[in-house]
Structure formats: C-alpha cells, structure tokens
## 1
Amino acid sequence: MWMVTACLAAIGCILAWIYWSKKRRQNIFKDLGIKGPEPNFLFGNLHQLHKQSLYESHQMWTKKYGKVYGYYEGTTPVLVTSDLGILQQVFIKQFSKFHGRKLFPIQPDPDSGPQAHMLLTRGDKWKRLRTIINPTFSTAKLRLMSPIMNRCTDILMSILEEKRLEGKPFDIYSIAQGLTLDVIGETAFGIQVDAQRNPTDDFLLHCKSIFMAAVKRPILIYVALIFPELRRFWWWLHQLASCFREDDFQWLENSLGRVISLRKKETEHRRVDLLQLMTDAEKYPVLERRMSQLTMRRYSFNSLDGSDSNSSDNSDRGKPFMRQNSWHLSSVRNRSSSTNGYTNGHVNGHANGHANGHANGHANGHANGHANGLSNGIVDDVFDEKKPQKEGLTEAEIKSQSVLFLLAGYETTSTLLAFTMYQLALNPDIQTKLQKEIDDHFHENDMPTYTTVNHLTYLDMVLSEISRMYPQGSPIICRRCMETCTVNGILIPEGVTVQADVWSIHHDPEIWGDDVDKFVPERFTTINKITRHQMAYMPFGAGPRNCVGMRFALYESKMALVRILMKYTVKRCSQTQVPLSLKEGGSISPNGDVTIELTTRQSSP
C-alpha cells in the first residue's frame, strides 16, 4: 500500500512541478510589465494562432497592444515588436547577444546536430557555414551566372509565347516556379532539372509538396510546441520514423546526395558554384572567427542588388559555367531511404508558419543598409579574433545546406516574380514607365547582364515596393536572446525570441503614408531611402544574419523581368484575383493561381 501511495505522491509532485514550471514561464511578460494576449495554460496562444496566419495575428495584436507585446507558443515566450529602435539593437548593435533564431519544435541540435543547416544553427557553427557559403553570391560569381540565367529564360520566353498564341489567361506563378527551380538547380548544383518543360518533374513536385505541407500545420508540431522540454525526444522520434518512410525533404536530400557523389568523382572539370564550394570545404578546413568579437564595417552600395562601389570587378569578364559538367537528373532520381531526412512537418509545418522555405532566403552577408533599400548601410559582419583551424563541412552538412538552398532558390524568387507580374497587370501606368526604362537601356535581341540590369533604377524601385507590400519571409525574421540583456529599457531574458512584426512595419502609415496598400515604387527614390529609418524596410531581415541569397534572388528576378517586358505587356483579366489571396507556410505566397494575360508590345525595342 505504501508503494502505491509513494507512486501517487511522486506523480503528484511531477505534475505540480510541470504546472509550476509552465505557469512561471507564462508569467515572464507579466512580470516584466509587457502586455499581450492572455495565454492558455496548455497551449499558450497557439489556439489563437490556429485561427489565422501568424502575420495577420501579429498585425491584430499590434493594433491592440502597441509596438511591443508578448505571447506564448506553448510555453515558449515570443516578444513581438515593430519598434524600429529595438529592432536595430537586436538585429545589429547587440547581435552578439541575439545570434540565434527561434528553435523549431522538431529540429536537430542547433549547436552540434550534424544535419542542422544554416537556418537552424547559431554561434560559431552558423558563422562557419556562413563563411563558406558567402562567396557563392559574390559579385564575380553572380556575373558568371548570366549565361545560365539567360538560357533558362529562353525556355521561359518560348513557353510565354505559346501561352500568348493560345489567347487564354494562364497562371504565371506555376511557370515562374519552373524557371526558378531550373536556375537554382544549374547555377548552384550543376544539374539540369527541366522543370519548365516538365510540370511533373520529380524535383518540382517534391518542392511543391514541401511548401503545401507547410500550410497544413501537422498536429505533431502542436504537441511538440506544447512540450518543448522534450525537443530531443521529438527529434529522436522523427529520426526513428524516417527509417520506415521517405518524405519529400528526405527524397530531395537523397537525390542531391547522389549529385554530390558524382561531383566528388569529377576531377577533370571544376565548376564555380555552391556545391563546389561546399565539397571543397569538406576537404579543406576553414578559419572560424569568434562570435563574441563581432564588429561591423561600412560599405557604399549603389543599387538594390547590393553591388558595392569599392568592387574592382566591374566588368562581365569571365567564362560561363562549364556546361559539360552539368548532369542530367536521370542519374540521380532513383529513390532510396535514409535516416537523416526531415519530415514535412519539421521543414514547413510549424504552427507559426515558419519553415526552411525561407528557406524562405537570400543575401550574401551584405547587410542592413542594403537590405533596407538604403544607398549606404551597415554590412558584412567581421570578427576580429581568429580561432584555430577547424574541420570543414561534413557530408551531412553538405546535404542539408543543399536542400535548404534548393528550396529557397525555388520558392522565394518565383513568389517575388509572381507578385511583381500581378501588380504590373493591375497598374499599367507603372508597367509602361518600367518598359520605357528598359527600352532606353536595351535594343532588340539584347541579352541582359549583371551590369546592365543594375543600371535600371526604376526596376530597383519596383522590386523594392513589391517586397514592401509582400514581405514573404516575415514569419522567420526573428532572433533568439542568447544572453539576458536590456534593450532600450526592456529586460529580455535568455531564451526569449524577439520577432519583428515586419508586416505592420511595412504597412505603417506613419512611415509610408496613408496609401500603404497602393503600389507606389517612388517610395524608394534615393532621397526617400536616405530619409527613412534603416529598419523601416527589412523584407530580407537585417544585420549579419540577413538573407544570404538576397542578391541572387533580386538578380534572377531582374533578368527575367527585363526579358519579359521587352517583348510583352502584362494585363489583368476577368480571372485575376483582386485582391490577391495569400497563404502562409514556408513563406507568404499567393493562395492559388496568379492569372494574367500577355499581349505583344506594339512598340517593343
């Protein structure tokens, strides 16, 4: 009898400890005097987030509680702010105390997990990965990508001409997805996907499936959010499940793994791309620098793409990527199982709409001033004190980074192109002005290059305004406090996630005027950019952890738009959604088709 009593007492003590622990964590913001929605004991505020998207919830709560408030994902505290001064401190000035991101409910260990990619890692591991990846998106490398981008865009143009001849409205979003997958496949990995001509391509279908799964928000993610203390167990459970089935993320990882194996065997030709940099880093160690020694330096940027005025590489010299080293995918598509994959839920199904899709990404270490559309800004993180050499990338790290960048390059650029085409169809006067700028710089049959597209200042303004109206990566623009500190008079305990309410900032009438819902590219004239606060525009994040592929995404978008608008005029039709419905998953994207019509220009160059 006494044993039963002892067991009941032990269970009672455990339950009491769990209750006390949860209540203590859910009182953090109340103890700090920070307002916010009242949390449920079990779910925190997850039950409220389930009713609508995260960015909509943030906007609603910002209107109710002000520019700083707190809520809970289970017991995980999230401090949401649209205060530009606080964001500047968190993302830039005190970055060394906020170098982590929010922990997803099911993920490998961010410090030691062999499968943790750059979106998940922090501290010195993140810095090591970032240092290796950064050269992929340098000015010199981007220049070399022009022939590949134009070759892929040739296919796009032939498809658009077929659609025009049919004389029927069509979905530009799905076509853009094929283009961006073809481009990232060949420029980053040397593989020819052919997703534009083959809408049933395995790579395309698995990429789409991952982002569709992000919107569904599986129940397991909610359970993991309610009990974050069991994060290691959830990851172990996920790893166990992967032994018995191959999900979409795992299929991509296995397929790219076969591409990696082929690349390692190839010794006759060397490509200058992301995969080559990573495989080289597996052989040769890299120098790391300490997170604690972070300083910032300034560069001057002349355009939204981030090319710096100090660069000595100001020509389009350089040989194109070696086509003979591009593999067709028939050799890598055999399915195989692996115990290392992520589930769809992990990658994209987080209850708050977070995902690898932003994986959602896109900058090369060029930072805040540029990312915010400024002429001059704080950029690239520099660490003073070098550490001894450490190991290069492991094979698991190469696979996980590869899938991350494939998904990011596919999703974010296609969404940016779809939003842009949509707004140009709705605003023919702006489209005409943009076409005139293109006509002034290009003649018939001219092929755009890195140099020529970056002379198009109005195109810069158009893409900046699209990114203001639709900050697609806003759900994952956040930082995790790694050390208790005070920011602008607010005590932020270790473990609290600081979430930027980017959508509210980008639609704030006090910053942008009363017409915030209108498409007005002139908001990004040089004088307007200089006079605005540098944190008022942050679609790609800000500071050292801003989007690593930003310049790549913008460059690819410019190349495609120039080719399209040189020949065609985009028009709305009876099937065009007005307003455009949005969904939140791996990123914020159109919910359904983006239907338009094309006509041949009467006075094309």
## 2
Amino acid sequence: MDDKIDLKNKDDKVLHSPEPEAVPVAPDGGYGWVVLCASFAINVLVDGVCFSFGIFYLEFLDYFGESKQRTSWVGSVLNGMYLSVGPIVSALANKYGCRKVSIAGSILATLAFSLSILSPNIDILILVYGGLGGIGFGLMYLPAIVMVGFYFEKKRALATGIAVCGSGIGTFIFAPLSNSLIRQYSWKGSTLIIGAIVLHGCCMGALFRPLKTTISKECQKEDMLDGENASNEDGAKNVEIHQYLLNGKAAHSKSLEHIHHKSNGEANLLNSVDQVWHMRKDVQEYLDVSRPMYRKDVFYSGSTLHLERQMSLDNIDNVEKSGEAITGRTSVFSTITQMMDFSLLLNPVFLIYGLSCFLCMAGFFVPFTFLPDAAQKLGIDGDSSAFLLSILGIANTIGRIGSGWVSDQIWADSLLINNCALLIGGVATMLIPFCNTYGLLAAYSSIFGLSIGAFVSLRSIIMVELMGLEQLTSAFGLVILFQGASSFIGAPIAGALFDATGNYDLSFYFAGSTIAMAGIICLPLRRLAKWWSMHRKSCDKDLIEKRQCSEIGI
C-alpha cells in the first residue's frame, strides 16, 4: 500500500468519498417553501424601495433645491450599487453563507436610510442613501435569489418566478405607501419608517438555512457492513480512518494511537498528525459542496429539466465538474476572480449580449424615476401619479411569470421573446411625450412593465442557451457588473436632458432608444452563436491535428 491514501482507489470503497449520497440534494419543497417566502419578502423590500424612488425624488428636488440631473444621482447610485456589488456579494455568500450576508445587508441598509435624514446636502445623501443603501440592498438581494436556486431544482422555474414576483408586488405596495407616508411625516420621517421596514429583512435572512451535505442511511449502513465484513486489518483500519476523516471529533493523538494499534504492519502509513489532517482536508473539499458557488447552475432561473446538461448532482463527477473552478478555493478573491472572467470579452456572442444589457439598463430606471414627475406636470395629482408605478409593478409581475412559463415550452425562443419585449418597451417609452392623459400613461406603464419583466426573467436562460452552462457564472457576474455601471449613468443623463430643454421629451427619447437598441442588436445573436461554436470547434480540431503531427515528428 502506498504512503499516500488515494481517495478514489477502487479497492478502498470506504475511502471513496464522497459517495453519490454525500451531496446536498434540493428538496424541491418542504423547508424550501419557507426559503421561497423569505426570498419573496426580500424582493418586496429591495425592489419595492428602489422602484418607488421616483416618489422620494420629488421630495429631494424640493428640499435640496438641486437640478434634476444632480438629484437623480441618489436613485442611480442606489440602483447601480446594488447591482454592481453582485460579484463581491457572491463571494461573501460563498465564504460566510447566505444567511449572514443577507442579515448584514438588512442592517446596513437600515442604518444608511436612518443616517441619510441627517444629510446636509445632496452629495452626502448620494453617498449615504444611495451608496451605503445600495450596498446593503446588494447584500440582501443576491443571497435571496441564490437560496431559491439552491432549494429548488425540478420546480426551480416556478419557485424563481414566485420569488421575483416580489419585485412587482413591492413596487405596487411601496409607491402609494411612500406617497402616503411623505404626506404625513415628510421625507425624513418616511425614510425612517422605510428603514424600519427594511430591517425586517433580518428575519427573512435568518430563514436562509444552508443545505447540509449528508450521507444517506444506505451509505452509512453499507460502510458499516464493509467494516464488519473486512477480512484483514487494512479493511478495519480504513473504516477507522473513514470515520475519523468525516467526523473529525476525536483528538489527533488518540486517533493516531488507535489507528496504529489496529495496523501494526502499516504504521508508516499515518506517521504524523499532519498526514491525517491533510486527508481530512482532501475529503472536506469533496464534501463541502453546500457553498452556493460550487454549483454552476446557481444563477439559472429556468427549469433544470430543460438544461442540455443534467444538473441534478446525482453523482460525484457532476459535483466535481460543477465546482471545479472554485473547489478548494473559498476565499473571497478567488470567487470574485471566477465571476469576473474578462476573457469572455473575447467571445463576440457575450460581448454583444453584454452590450445589450448595458444599453437596456441605461434606460431601465428612467421611467421609474421621472414618470411621476412627468405625470404631475400634466396636472395629474400626486396619488394618481404614484399609482402609475404601482401599475408598472403589477405588469412587471405578470411579465416575469408569463415569460418564465413561455420560456419553459419546447417551442419557445427565449432570445426572440427578449428582443421583441425590448423593442416594444423601448418604442413605448419613446411615445411617452405623446401621452397627455392619465389613461395613456397607465397603458404605457402596463406595456413597459410587461417588457422589462420578460427581460429580467430571461437573462440567465439566454446566457445558458448562447454560451453554455459552463460559462454561466462568469457571464452572469460580468453582465450584472455591466448593468450596474449602466444604471449609474442612465437617470442622470435623462435628468441632464431635462435641465437643458425644460421638459422630459428628450429624456424619454433617450431611454426608449437605448432599450429598443438593446433588442435590435440581439436579433442576429442566435446565428452568431452558431457561427462562433463552429469556429471554435474548427480551431480545436486544427490544434489537435497540429499536436498529433508534432508527436509523430511530422
């Protein structure tokens, strides 16, 4: 027997760890429904506050007396920050767990909103309300999405659809709620109350119980039988080592002494505590697959039954593949590096889709920020203008559910649905200057809500279809980074256009054109993806032929 124990030695069945059963299996129900409700509530809080910012925007304009462009930075930094910190939040959740990260985010967001009422000027408000509040929301939001994917597999499309519905429901609730609170308590009192409501995210985050890696009873029984029926001392010794490596409870010295006593002929096999600890660490790398980023489908929002590659993690090979990029590297820096693989920028398919997402988010938050103010300039009262955001939120919910269901159908083309939704939403936004009645603005809110709902719901599905599951984690990390950067500048540009012209016409033309362009540039993306795939296969084939020729000396 070699001095080094091979965890994959077929002769040592007991040391072949982990078995297929030693993998966290998504329950697709049970406690998962509790996690789903918690995720739904966090979506209500985060997106409810962010999407109803247009109500507070009017108050900030009056209180600080700054320009539209400068005041809009408050909401832009809030939205941009909570998207941009996505890769960092993923790394923190991978190292410390979704529960701790989500609770910390809730506390930080509450502190940010509470301290923001002390802001002496708009710059401090941008830093505290927008910057710190956005980071807090980022810490809350991403773990909520990840946990749903972790607890649901076969029912993931349904579960994710329900969770993200919290976004629309939150907008529907918080827009009129914020308007009512401001009318009674001013923006400062309202912000304190909103902060207190956000603090309830701690309770929701506490429900994010991590899935534990466990060995089934059948596996344990099989190990016991293997140990009892062992006909030589090596078999008995392997059982001892196996139990030691998995439990790690016995003192090193006692365990070593016991193992040496049972295997006098193999005393040199475990001649130090360091060797035993090294083996325990190797096994732990296989067993510790309960971290979110060990799964390459963790950001996938569709049904896993329709993935080209089976991701049910029924065997250890799938675990190794799904975590091969991060296994053994749980540091924050390592995970961030994995999520921000800039080599993807050499892929023209990803480059165009990333540009599409950047353009879309440049106009995404403009209606949320300026639509209430534009409505009031038409003589519409404050309550009715705030309710436009509620209509938008409900339509957003319907759009997410509808597009999610359609994308699961065999005949559906997710990319085509996305492109059509962006074109329709962009054109509708450019027509806002011609909507001079409340009915037309309400109709626009419905159309735009449906469009953006489809866009948000189909992102991960499109990335998997175009670039494959292997690159989903890296692609998703870069996409949300692009979206965050775009969210920073979209509303301020629209605000600057108002300051320059005195009306919102150019602002909505800008927002609508960027959203429509996001859909237009994706029209040839399917053909480009096929060409790129064939090109890569051809390059790989040529490389293999060159290697074969070099090996035979040609």
## 3
Amino acid sequence: MRRNKQWDVNKAMLLSRLFQFLHCAGKACVIPFLTLYLRYLGLTASLTGIIMGTKHFINLAWAPLSGYFAKHYNKRRVVILSSLLCSIGAGLLLLLIPPADKATMTRYCNISAFAGFGLPKTAEDTINYSQLGNTTMTVHAFTTLISPTALSKINTKHIATAGAGQTLNDAILATAAASKHEVKRIAHRQSHRENHKNEEGANPDIPDNSDSKRSVRSRSLKTGSAHGQKPTDVVLEVQHQLFFLVLMAVALWEVLSAPLEWTVDDGLYEYLDFVDATDGYSRQWIWGYLGAACSACGVGLLVSNLDCLLNVHIHRSAVHFYCYAILITLTLLTGTFLPIHVNRKQEQTNKVLKALHLISNDGRATLCSLTAFIVGAVGSTFENYLFWQMQDKGSSEFYMGASIAIKLFAEILLSFFSSKILKTLGQSGTVALGMLCMAVQCLYYSFLWSPWSVLPIQSLNAFSNGALWWALNAQCEDVSTPGMERSVQRVFQALSLGLGAGIGSLAGGFIASRFSLEVLYRAAAVVLVIWSVAFLIVQSRIPRQKRVNYSRLLAVDNSDLSDTETDQERDWLVKAMKDEKENNSW
C-alpha cells in the first residue's frame, strides 16, 4: 500500500523565506544601481528612460504569459532554475559593453573629494580632473595622471616623501596651503590637454599606452574624421550604437528573469493553499525587504570604498554585478529545494480577464486602478533618476544604498500598524495621504543640497509606498469574489509597476533631458497633489458597493464573540447581509 506524502509546512516556510531573502538581496545589488551604470557608460537620461521603459513593458507582457505556460505544462521548477541560471549570464553580459568614452567612467568618482581645494563640487562642472576624485588613489597614480612637467610646478616636497602606501588625500593635505591655486590651475590645464587628445589623438606629456584598447568613441572619432564627418555627428552615432547594444542586453536579461517571481509566487501560494497554511503567505514580503535592505547598504559601502577603476578597463560598478551573480547562485541552490505544488487540475476560466471585469464594474476600484497607474509612473522617476540627482550632489554609493535601506526598514516597521492606520483614516484617506507624502518626497528631491540630505526624507516611503498599497490591496479585497483576491491585486500591480512605470520612464527621461532633474521632480509633485485632491472628491461621490466575501467570513473565530450578544448578532451571515444592504442602498 502506498504511503501518504507528509507535508512539512515549517520547513517549506523556512525555505521560501530564505529564497525570498536571497533573491531580493541579489536584485538589490544591481537593479537600483542599473541606471547609474548606464550613466557611466555615457547614455543620456532620455536613452536611459527608453531602456528602462522597455524593461518594464517586457515584464508586463512576458511574466504572466510565462507563468501560465509553466503552470499549464507543470514545469515550474524547471522555469525557476533556468531563469535563475540564465539571468546570471545575462546580467554579466552588460559588463562586456564598452563605454562611449573612457572619461565618463571616472567623471563622477567622489567629486566632493577635492572640494576643499577649490575644485567644482557638482557633476555639471566636471573636467577630466575627475579622474583624481578618489581619495584612496595613491601618490603613484596621481603622478601618472598629471604630467611630470606640470607636477614639477607644485610644491611636491611632502608628496615625494609620502611613501607609496600613503593616499593622495593625505599627501595633498600636507601641502594644501602652498599649492591650492596650483592644483586648480594644473587640473584645468590637464583638462585642455585631454580634450586636445580626444580630438587629435596626441598628447606630448602623457604617453598613450592603451592604443590597442581604445574606447569606442576614440575609434569612431578617428574613422569619422577620415570620412569628413563632424565630431558631434560621430559622437551621436557612437552613442546610438551603445544604446542599441545596451537595449538588447537589458531586454534579454528581462526576458530571462521575468518568469521567476510570478512562477515562484504561484507555486508557493498553491502549495500553502493545498496544506491549508496560507496565513504565512501575506508576510513573505518582509523577508525580501530585509534581504534587499541589507544587500543594497552592504554593496554600496563596499563599492564606495574601492578605487574608481579596478584596473584599466573595469569600473568599480562592476562589483554590483559580481555580487548579484554570487547571491543569485545561492538562490539557485535554494531553489532546488523550494516547495512547489503540482496542480493537476486545469482552470477553465481566465482569472485575469475576470479580475479586469470586476474592476471595470466597480467605480471605486476603477478610480484606484488609475491611482495605481499614476503612482507607478511617478515612482519610476525615483527608481531611474534619484541616484543621478544624488550623484550630482556628491553622494557615493554608500549613501545611495543607505537610502534604500532606510525606506525599506521604515515600511517594515509601519506594516505592524497597517490595520490601525486603515481603520483610522479609511481607504480613501490612506491613499490620499500616501500620494501627498510622495509629492513631498518629489519636491524634496528637487532641492537636495548635500550628499546625505536625501536620507531623512526616505522614512516617508512607509506612507508613500507602504500605506498606499495597503489601502489599494484592501480595495482589491472589497471588490473581489472568493478566490479572486490575488488576481485583482496582480492587475493593480501590473497597472502600476508595469504599464505605469514603463510610460513614466519614457516621459521622465524626456523631461530630464529636455529640462532638468529638478523640473522632473517638481512636475511629478504637482501631478500627485492635483490627483490626490481629485481622488478624494471623486471617491466621495461614488457609492460603496462592497461584496460579501464568504470565504473570509468563514475564517472568523467564534471565540471573539461575547456572551452578551443576541443570537441574531452572533449570526455572521445575517450581519454581512445587513452591511451589504446598507452599502448598496447608500
């Protein structure tokens, strides 16, 4: 006689939490910093917006489709493991794409390090002295960047005796009083020499030892000049070539990684539902947030303490991709033991279409779906260009990672009071409060003044993202019929993180290139304030039609009822029908 299979729910929950922790930690190593790496490669804000918008659109279409095929053919574990394995290689593929200009790779390295010597503090004022921006650069590296002729004009008495292990910052501090103006003048002279080198390919002071490995821009300038093209036209052509290479690499990466989260989520939920243990499913996101917060802060601290260039051709941002590959490899090992329930029963109805039908037939749900779209569009400006704004103010990767950790920890802490907040403010009030907090964040981002100034405002993310989505999910539960809650929530997430984020990336990139990042964030703040007021006005005029979700009512514990209640008050079905009648008659 065949023995019944034993289901270890505690072990399954532990494995799923570990998987969630490692996977989100791996993503946090590189995804928040991806647009920063595209900036290092030399792409503009508009081109970066197109790439990120394409990434969101691919996820919007391919994630549910691949999840459906994985479930239909019972190949979820194969899809999960294949997606993890292939995404490692696809992510590292970006490191093979050369930058448009080598100067862009070092332009933003610790710009504020030379602020005390009269050098510019923001990225807009950079010259090629930015190669000197890393305070851990040794004296030998400094002397190789500046020509011997120019170096001899500085008071190098202390620099010459500093020793090979002493940093450039220590050496310059010893002679700052006598050499402040000389350092500034030589840096400007170095800039003119580098510009002359880019145009004519010659520099008498600095020998060129990398002729065989020049950047894409240098080769194209030489070829373009031979054919009579203008230098500006050649630069644009090189940038477009770089754009298409990066676009194909990012698109491939997203195609390979998009099926993962949808498939894992479906498999875990059906497993827990089969063993009647879905109570722990709603708290799985906390472990992902913990992993992302620790990973982003840790990798930011690591990268900010490295030299700008690990070697002649590898920028320190490559460490983000290396850490991503390591953590996803650990996730791959965990995924081989991930609990997945094989459901032999095929669904006859399409839940996505049914969820769209439920939303379209409810005025409040339709209004909330439009809100999710707008929030996703504005949120994409945070993801794509906030680190650019921080970098222009001299922030290092450590401050960027810390900003991610603060907002995630704030959201986790506030989640323990989510029920009380929703009960006090109501769904409409919570949504409006979340949008107003997001507007305050946008306005604050446009006035950043120092490398650390972004950190205090990140705690508002608990309301602008956490509380807002709790209210939207509560609306999903109100409009859903039994068994449709997750499908309605996924439609809201697709409208926000897929369609909204994609369109927001395209529009945000155009505005940032045409105007500035400050204008982008101020415009986003105005849109949020206007929509929050309109949301409250329209929501108050739409009658509330809450459906009775009998599957949730059955889960009510009868012990919560007091002994003084009458028999009619004890009957939850009578109470539910009474509430439904009152809501529909209003």
